[in-house]
Amino acid sequence: MNPFLKWLDERTGFVSLCKKIAGWQVPASKCFCRWLPSAIVFAFIIQGITGLFLWAFYSPSAQTAWESVWYVQYQLPFGWLVRGIHHYSAQVLVAMLGLYVLGLVLHGAYRRPREFVYWGALTMLLFSLASCLTGDLLMWSLSGYFATITRVSFLQLLPWVGLPLYKLVAGGPDPAFGTLTLTRFTVLHIAVFGGGGMALMCLWKWFDFRSRPLSAAKGCPHPCALACAETKKRTLWGWEILGAAFSCAVFFAVVLLLVFQHSLTKEMIAGRAPTLPAEAYLGAELTSPADPGGSYDAARPEWSFRALYYESKLPVFSKIGMIYAIFVVPPILLGFFYLLPILGRVKFLHYLCVLAVAALAVVFGLFTYWSYEDDYKNPEHAPAFLASKASAEVLRQRAVELCAAPSGIPQTGALSLLNNDPFIQGPKLFAQHCASCHRFEPFGELAETADFAPIECKEPTAPNLYRSVSREWISGYMNVEKLLSADYFGATTSFGEKGSMVTYMKGRVQGGQFDKAGNFMLNDSNGLISAVIAADGSPALDILTEAFTEISEDEDALAALAEGDVTLLKEKIAEKCEDESILESLDPALPVPVLTALKEVLLQMPDDETYQEILADEENLEMLAGDVDSFLTDVYLAQLNGSDEPIPAGETAYIDRIREGIVAACGEVAAILYDESQLDSVREGSKRSFDGLDESAIASMEFMGCIDCHPFYGHEKSDHACDLRGYMSKEWLKGFIADPTDVKYYGKHNDRMPAYHPAEGDALMSESEIEMLADWMHGAWYRAPKVENQTLLGRDNELFPGVRLQSEDSGESVSCPDSSSCGLPAEGDPAGPSGEGE
Amino acid sequence: MENYAENRQDHPGQDSEEQREDRRHFVKSALAVGLGAACAAVPVYGGARMALYPLQQTGLSGKEYQLTTLANLDETPRLYSVTDTVADAWVSSPNQPIGNVYIRKTAEGEVQAFQAVCPHAGCRIKVDKQKDAESGDEVTLFFCPCHGDVFSLDGERVSPETSKSARSMDSLETRVDEEGRVFVKFQNFRLGCAEKSPV
What we know:
The complex is a heterodimer. Chain A is mainly α. Chain A contains 36 helices and six strands. Chain A has a two-stranded antiparallel ribbon with strand order 1-2. Chain A has a two-stranded antiparallel ribbon with strand order 3-4. By secondary structure, chain B is an alpha+beta fold. Chain B contains three helices and ten strands. The longest helix of chain B is centred in the first third of the chain and has 36 residues, at 16-51. Classes of the chains: A mainly alpha, B alpha+beta.
């Protein structure tokens, strides 16, 4: 022997031990399950390695536990891999231990002299299960939190000791878990069940070695761990060790498959949410941070506890008491399993035991299957379960987006990011405070967008606020039909049919209506169309008067008109239409779209047959020469206005053109109001013309008559209706929601809307809640940059530095216009995980 | 069969079959160890990359901070605290202290700034009045309380031969804008060595 090895062996005995182990004779059965013990030992080693690395980053407190796990999963290179292996190899380990114990019983290998081998394996299985249970809480995620709190609450079922036990486990009197729960669960998970499991594994192996010579000596038919039909024996050193290594490799391949289960195909990778990094789809799941104030209806135990979960929900236990399902039946079964080696001493009982265990295994399988079936397939339970999972997924994605935002995670923890996020809290607040009256669902031109999901309202009595801060929604005000629909003020008491806004719009803006025969009836002079073209004082009259006065003073022009030549008249009208001094003195002042329409109408008139007949009439021409005003009001413009007579269908072209102009002006007003909604604060100054708002904007508001009632820039004294300065902007909305009865808003006209945060009295919402609601209505929340062309591991986590994995076609581009505002902290940051790849 | 090596020694002439078997066994065991190691290498590699992550991170990048104005300075150094948003693991906290800087204005009106950390072993340097050995006058000096190093107000070691510190105090780049605001480029430097190199 090599002198060094000799020296080492003399002092330690290691070399001889290795040789002894290598020379071991093991039964060479053909059953695959004899490899299980090797894979189990290997799984424990993997758990130890990965657990140690995770431990180095884990921080057990209510504000840091989830965050440190997030850090491991999303920030550390390969954190997701280590965490994923730790999680899934634990699941596979439990399965292997279960199969091993089952195999021991079915093969009869649990009996003497192997009682302790069996007991060791059984206890190892229990410790592994306990490790899974305690580990579930450690990530302090929504699912782990609510699943664990349910489990621990079962302790309260116990008489006398129940409550004290619960307090001891939870680490405090509160029903909610906290930092102390985490610290003790950490110790339980790592030291007691993890370390204890390791120690048990060593004991188990020791018992196994002890049992071998005993088995041989007694001629026991089952000397191996799983004594399958053994024919001959082999030395460990050789095929046996290769087989063991192969079994470890198979175990590890299964674990890796589970780690990558959400990224196995190109379609899966392409289907990832574009705002999430690749780590969100790799390794073990991390749901959103635990929220003691929230809920998670889809909290379920791991697969290994599903049978117990199903058992506890059997109807029989709701009759005789839950305590039997948790604290009587499982301990009895466990006691039976522990007594097996003693019962099995009697041959007859041995067969009974094997039968009973086989039956229990079948029941376990069936219960597990039924439990999943109930959640995913049962038409009564599945929709709620899946909906709860879906809303948890929304939270998970949002939490990941917010944590990766440039502002990072505050000291108060990631939960506070979600609690202050308009995207998450807005719909909740709306559902709580607004949805009893307001609808929130797509209608008309307001199609559904991904930003806003509809919110149910059973009896809508107030406007539908879906995307209410948008051009489309605001322009609905310009249409009486819309205004009277249930989507606007149709269902309100003070703004509906008899509301002054509706009355006003009907009387003035519409300007007239069609009767059943399709004839058009102008409204009285209140109507806007009438106001533009009325025969008694209107812009149309003003311009025509100027033009015809000059014609009437010109003999040649009159003569030409008499002969039916309107060229000169058209020139005159065109000239006057462009005359600034005339245009400026028009009353009412016309916004550009209406003026354009009026010019077109006036220029077309002389070509019209009806008007040519008027001009060809001698009497009319005499009247024109003598009294222009009478000619225009009595004959020329009267044609248009038709006094009280309906204008026959098909002859409303001029009216329609003017109406188009007015509709366009309505659009301008809507645009002005939309601009107001986008302001951070009300514009400074009170003059007509200032930053971003010119005189023509005011003119449109003036023409439409908005500022007769609504305060607006330069017209602050109107106070019959709500202030349009900064209308629907965040500041406006905040003030409005806080107290709609304020004179700035609806004042005494307020319909039924409560004041949510009045200056005096009880507040229904806090200021920050109102702010979140306003931000949400504005769609003002942090938006993560989108990653295009996702790759398997994302762009920052190359498997090896300097080597790029070409798992996808191209896919290195990140759609991020500006790296400094980019949500990915690693983007362009040498400190990030990408730093080593370049 | 208990031990092949001993068998070989006992029967040197008859071991060809056993030797061959031994070799075959060696190949199989090597394969087995390789396979097991390859599997175990995955979590070990991942864990090592996790644990070594700090090596990939860089510290302060030498950002400029406005700390005072020219009007506030005179020849006596004043201590200023530098604050910034600190990313500590996953937590990002605004307005956290990241270091201290001495700033003074020389008689010529030049602005000087020094790291308040002693380049010897990282103690906080203080400003102290000491009696000059020769003249007996009281002079103001930089003084490190840990190992007694003394630096002049220009940051130079007063007695380089006996000084524990291998270099003078670490000066920092300064900039004064038109409005008299004083900016300092804050950096940390490697301790203990003669050369001033940023960390």
